[in-house]
Amino acid sequence: MSWYDVLKDAVNVAKRAGNVEIQQSLIDVQHQMLDMQQKMIALQEENDRLREESKHLNDENQRCNGIEHHETLSIVTRKNDNPKIPFCSNCWGLNGKEVRMVKKNYSVGGERLYCTSCTNSCRYSEFYSLGSV
Ligand SMILES: [Zn+2]
Known about the structure:
55% helix, 6 strands, binds zinc ion
């Protein structure tokens, strides 16, 4: 039996006993309980939303902490990747996207890593010099 049904029964008992004062007090308690229940539902919804937001922020924080920046290269890599995969530092910096750099061989400039999204590039030999390729 819910709290609402219990109070409803108590109101009916007070009504049958002819005690208007207790009847009114029970009705007031019923209204207060309904208000509290609505507030509790709103708090649960807010709590669910905040949990989801916190999870998203933790996931994002973990993802950012797993990235290595290389001062002399225009790429980023993941700390735990072995071998290292080059991602575009420009795309990472602008929107947090991991856009994999592709290796291209240019007639002038030789082998370069190239971002197909923003055209950022660097010499492949610089990436290779990281020693973990
Ligand atoms: Zn890019």
